[in-house]
Design a protein that fits this description.
Blueprint: H1 2-58
């Protein structure tokens, strides 16, 4: 009886740990995606600023 309970607890604990690792990976991937989006946004912003400068210099 005690052995069964400890086995179930071990399985439960292992499952929890696996879930935590998966969530950690998902968070890491989400963070990377956010960084990429931020970088793209910054590139677009820089491009827009350059366009403005060029437009002003044409005037």
């Amino acid at each position: 009886m005690l052995l069964q309970v400890s086995q179930k607890l071990f399985i439960y604990y292992t499952t929890l740990m696996i879930n935590f690792r998966i969530e950690d990976q998902i968070l890491s991937i989400s963070n990377s995606i956010l960084q990429c989006i931020t970088m793209q946004y910054n590139v677009i912003l820089q491009y827009y600023k350059i366009e403005q400068v060029l437009e002003i210099s044409r005037l």
